[in-house]
Amino acid sequence: MENTISQTLKGGEWLIKESTTQQTYIPEEFNEEQRMVNDMCIQFLNAEVLPQIDKIDKMEAGLMPSLMEKAGEQGLLGVAIPEDLGGLGKDFITSTLVNEGLGGGFSFSVAVAAHTGIGTLPILYFGTEAQKKKYIPKLASGEWKGSYGLTEPNSGSDALSAKTTAKLSEDGKYYILNGQKCWITNGGFADVYTVFAKIDGDKFSAFIVERGMEGFTQGPEEHKMGIKGSSTVQLYFQDCKVPVENLLGEAGKGHIIAFNILNIGRLKLCAAALGGAKMSMDICIQYAKTREQFKTAIANFGAIKYKLAQMAIRIWVSESALYRTAKWIEDKETELRANGSPFNEALLGAAEEYAIECAMLKVDGSEVLDYVVDEGVQIHGGNGYSDEYMISRAYRDSRINRIYEGTNEINRLLIVDMMLKRAMKGKLDLMGPAMAVSKELMSIPDFGNEDETAFAVEKKAIANMKKAILMTAGAAVQKLMMSLQDEQEILMNIADMAILTFNAESALLRVMKLVAEKGETEYLLQADIMRCYLNDALDAVNKFGKDAINAFAEGDEQRMMLLGLKRFTKAAPFNSKNARRRIADKMIAENKYCF
Ligand SMILES: Cc1cc2nc3c(=O)[nH]c(=O)nc-3n(C[C@H](O)[C@H](O)[C@H](O)COP(=O)(O)OP(=O)(O)OC[C@H]3O[C@@H](n4cnc5c(N)ncnc54)[C@H](O)[C@@H]3O)c2cc1C
Fold first, then answer.
1. 227: CA distance to ligand 1 center in Å?
2. Is the full-model pTM beyond 0.85?
3. Residue with the nearest Cα to atom 51 of ligand 1?
4. CATH number, residue 27
5. What are the residues whose beta carbons fall under 8 Å from the beta carbon of 574, sequence distance 6 or more?
6. Tens digit of pLDDT for each residue in 548-571?
C-alpha cells in the first residue's frame, strides 16, 4: 500500500469536515523497517525483560538501569533522536511503534517511556546547542538516564502553581533552587533531571539538574499499587546550585516546555497502552483456551467470547485513531520543516496542531487498557486475582495511565477547551456547521440515504454523530457562554461524544481503505469490529448528548434537541452478537490477537 496521505486535515477539523481514506493513514501501511523495529521491541521484552519481571518489580539493585542500557545499545532509546546527536533519526510513526512495541513491558515500559519522553525531549527540543551536545548522545545511548520533575505535593493538575523557587546567586553563576518535587519516575537512578521552578517566585522556568549537584537529594522509593519496578521518588532541593548555563529555554517560559512535551507524551502513552493491551489479550486468549470448566474450554462460552471480542474491538479502534493522528503529526512536521522550521519547532508545532487529538488518544488508550486488563482478570477467574498470573500484574500496572500525563478528567476538559479556543481564534469554524445543524433541526427530516456506495450507512451515521456534537456543543456555548467552563459535567459529556466519534470514524476509514485495496471478503472481520463499535458508539453518543442537553436546555428547545439527537444517533439493525462471535472465534483459532 502507498505510504502517503493527501490533504491532511488541520487539528479538530475532522469534526466539521468529511474525511477521506486518502487523508487517513492505517497501520496496515507500516513499511518493512517499521514492522521490524516493532518486532525488535517485542523480542527485546521477551528475551530481556519478561523473564526478569519479578526481579524488576522487587527493584533488584541496578537491574532497571542495566536493562535500559541494553535497550540503548540496540538503539531503542534513540529512535526519535537525530543521527548527529547519537540517535537513529527515525520518523514519528516509527518512534510511536517503539512505544507500542515496548508497551507490554510493565514497569520497564514506564521507565523507558519516561526516559525517552519527558526525560529526554525537553532538552532535545528546548536545549541550546551546547546543552544538546552534552546530554542528548548520552541519553540516546542509555549511558545517562533521564527524569522530569514537575509535580509537587501541592501542585499536580495545577502544575503552574508550583512552589519550588530559583534565585540567581550574587555572583550570577548559579540559580539556587529550593523546594520539593514528588512522584518522579526514574528519580531514584536518573542522572539528568528537567526540573521546574519559579525564578524569584514568579517566573516559571525549567532547569537541567544533574545527580550529585550540591543541595540536590532524592527520597526513598514510594510503595505503589502497581508499576512496582518503576522508580518513583521525591526530589529535594536545598540551596541547590544549578549553573546558569543549565537554564532550559527562556526564563519565565517553562510552561511552554511543560505543556508542549505533554502533547507528544499523550499520544505515546496511548501507543504504550495499546502495546500492553495487545499483550494482555494474547495471555487471555491462551488462558481461555486451556482453562476448562463444565467439561469444556471457557473460550467456548458466549460470555467469554463477548469479552474477548470487545477487548479486541476497543484495541483495534483505538489503534486506528492513534496511527491516523500520528501520521497527521508526521506530515505536519515534514511540511513545517520544508517551510524552514528548525527540527525542534517542527515536531512541537505539529504536535500542538493536533493537541486535541493527542488528548483524546490519551484518554481512550488508557481506558482501553483498563478495560482489557479488567476483563482479563475476569476471564482468569480466581487465578486472575493471584500474583502468580501476569494478568494480575497487568491490572495493577494499568491503573496509573489514567492519572499521569494529565489526568483523564483534565484531558477531557482540555479537549473541549481547545476546540472552543480554536473556534474563537478563527482556526476552526465550529459556528458555521453548528448553525447549519440547528437549521436542519427546524426542517423536515430526511430519512433517506441517496448515497449507494459501500459503507454509505456507516458514513451517514458518522456524519450524524458529528451533527449531534455540533448541536449539543453549539447550544451549550450559546446558552451558557462563559459559565460553560463551570459546567464540567457537560464538558465531559461533549468530550466523550468527540472521542467516540473520532474513534468510530477512524475505524470506518481504515476498513474502507482496506476494502478498497483488497476487497471486502479479506476484511469481513475488520468490518465486524467497526460495526460493533459504531453500534455502541451511537448509543453512547445518545446517552452523553441527552445528559448534556437535559442539563442546560428547557421546554421546546429541549424537546427539539432531544428529537434531533434521537435522529442523529439512530443505528441500523445489526446482529452484534454474531459479529462478536466471529471476531472471538478468529482469535481463538489464531491463538492471539490477530487484527
Ligand atoms: C506513579 C506516578 C508517576 C508519576 N511520574 C511523574 C513524573 O515523572 N514527573 C512528574 O512531574 N509527575 C509525575 N507524576 C505526577 C502526576 O503527573 C500527577 O499525579 C497528576 O498530574 C495528578 O496530580 P495530583 O496527583 O496532584 O492529583 P490532583 O491534581 O490533586 O487531582 C486529584 C483529582 O482531582 C481531579 N482534578 C484536579 N483538578 C481538576 C479540575 N480543574 N477539574 C476537574 N477535576 C480536577 C483530577 O482529575 C483527579 O481526579 C506521577 C504520578 C504517579 C502516581
1. 16
2. yes
3. 183
4. 1.10.540.10
5. 531, 532, 535
6. 999 999 999 999 999 999 999 999
